[in-house]
Amino acid sequence: MSFEQLGLSTDLLRAISDQGYTKPTPIQEQAIPVILEGSDVMGGAQTGTGKTASFTLPMLRRLEIQANSSMSPAKHPIRALILVPTRELAMQVYESVKTYGKYLTLRSAVIYGGVNIDAQIDVVRSGIEILVATPGRLLDHLQQKTLVLSKVEILVLDEADRMLDMGFLPDIKQIIQLLPDHRQNLMFSATFSEGIKKLASKILKKPVLIEVAKQNSVSELITHIVHPVEQIRKQELLICMIKQQDMQQVLVFARTKQGSDHLAQQLSRHGISSAAIHGDRNQLQRTQALGNFKQGLIRVLVATDVAARGLDIEDLTYVINFELPKNPEDYVHRIGRTGRAGAKGFAISLVSREENQLLIGIEKLLKTKVKIEEIKGFELKKQQPQALDKKAATDEKKYKRNALYVQNKKTSPFVKNGETIIRLNNEVVSKHTRRSEIKEDPLFTQPYESKVSDAETVILTQDELSKNIIHKSLRQSNRPLPTLFISPVISKQK
Ligand code: AMP
Predict the structure, then answer these.
(1) Which of 270, 276, 384, 452 is the most buried (most CB within 10 A)?
(2) Ligand 1 pocket, 48 CB below 6 A?
(3) If you take atom 18 of ligand 1, which residue's CA is the nearest one?
(4) Is the shortest distance between the CB of 341 and ligand 1 below 6 Å?
């Protein structure tokens, strides 16, 4: 299907063509006609699938019919409101609105916290049809009566799952009360928790459910690798990997603000130019760090989950989890920065003994076992049997049933078409990695079935690491875009 067949105007088609897009992505193909018809939409899509254009293009098409070039602010009421969880995503969505709407006379603005409100007040007072906003700052404006939402025809909730995670539900409820009842609602979320389903049932009217990919498509583009390592040696291993594999643009995730600052400093001290991006950094610092990273002026961007939400970085090959996220769904969001627009990516996690349970949760969500590669010289220390208490010994037994054995020269289950991503040691080593406390995760009610019968443990020497043999043939065209979709309960209406 082509963009021309989707019912967009010539001005929008020109803007799309300027961007060099040749055909719509799956979510665009499905969402654009439905939104043009005026239906509410529940979209299951994550960043990287082209979802921003999937709602922005039909929204612009619907609004452009009444666009005018009057100088009077009254002639430009807010007709579309796009709520997003973070400032970075707000800026990105706003950029998309401007890019796709560049041949239209519609006006738009973006408002988010962390910057002076006065400049934003001037812009919204001048009259705008499309407002991109984070919930907190929008409420500030509403309290100061610098804008009204009584003419809103289209409401978009982008990355709704993250908005709930960040505690924006009360703000969203407050904002929705100020909107006219008669409006079109579009909600996008990468995952569908109970909270999301509840919110969807409150906001959406007869929504059309748009599914963009099969459940297991994450692993088709992204190679997931776990390096087991002691917590205290993670930094050393990270430095070693970046240097020896000559990684040039790496997004590293740390769990805390202080941790990300410290890591960025340590990397810089070891000659790897780095910056940290997190909630305590002001907008200018965050924008600068991101800009420097995108331009290749720094090699590593260390980010916390909240700060990295929605980052649109093209051609990012490596995402490294310095620490695994507490919430398995954040793993999906993190790795959404790589393997975008058909390119191949690598999600590498440095996993300490204490994080085994988190890894199990992630594997359940991905419905696959992640490849384990020990790096020689950085292996986990063996635990003394006497140090294991009774419970641990039982867990050990349990674990042995699922033991992970090294298999010599076995092709990775994640590698398609016989492509080789790692070279194994010559000897066969039989080994297992202990994962204690295997429990059912209450997040997952479905039985967990791995696609891979036995995951492999592979030992790589530092020398092998240095040969950079892991990551060849990084780009592949005509591959599906990476998405993870968990079917919500909402039934398909169309
Ligand atoms: P999003 O999922 O909205 O964050 O978009 C991810 C990236 O895909 C952005 O850099 C877009 O510019 C790009 N993109 C969106 N639609 C298309 C398309 N139809 N063809 C190629 N790239 C696209």
Answers:
(1) 276
(2) yes
(3) 21
(4) yes
**The domain made up of 3-211 is a member of CATH 3.40.50.300:** yes
Alpha carbons 422 and 410: distance in angstroms, whole number: 10
pLDDT bracket for residue 420 (50, 70, 90) = very low
Kindly give the number of the ligand 1 atom that is closest to the alpha carbon of 23: 19
Whether 317 and 471 have beta carbons less than 8 Å apart is answered as yes
Q: Ligand 1 center to residue 92 CA distance, Å?
A: 11
Task: In whole angstroms, give the CA distance from residue 233 to residue 236.
Answer: 5
Q: Say if ligand 1 is within 6 A of residue 52 CB.
A: yes
Residue nearest to atom 11 of ligand 1 (CA): 50
The pLDDT of residue 287 is 81
Residue whose Cα lies nearest atom 5 of ligand 1: it is 50
**Which of 8, 158, 340, 485 for a ligand 1 pocket mutation test, highest count of atoms within 8 Å of Cβ?**
340
* 252 Cα to the center of ligand 1, angstroms: 23
Using alpha carbons, list the distances in angstroms from residue 405 to 429, 456, 458.
8, 6, 9
Amino acid at 63: L
Closest CA to 368 of 448, 470, 488, 483: 448
Domain spans in the chain, listed from the N-terminal domain onward: 3-211, 222-372, 385-466
Contact between residue 140 and residue 120 where contact means Cβ atoms under 8 Å apart:
no
pLDDT band at 436; cut points 50, 70, 90: very low
Query: What's this model's pTM, rounded to 2 decimal places?
Result: 0.57
Asked if the domains at 3-211 and 222-372 fall in one CATH topology, the answer is yes
CATH superfamily of 222-372: P-loop containing nucleotide triphosphate hydrolases (3.40.50.300)
Helix 87-100 and helix 10-18: axis angle, to 10°? 120
Instruction: Tell me if 53 CB under 6 Å of ligand 1.
Output: yes
pLDDT value, residue 47 = 74
Per the CB < 8 A criterion, the answer to whether 61 and 7 are in contact is yes
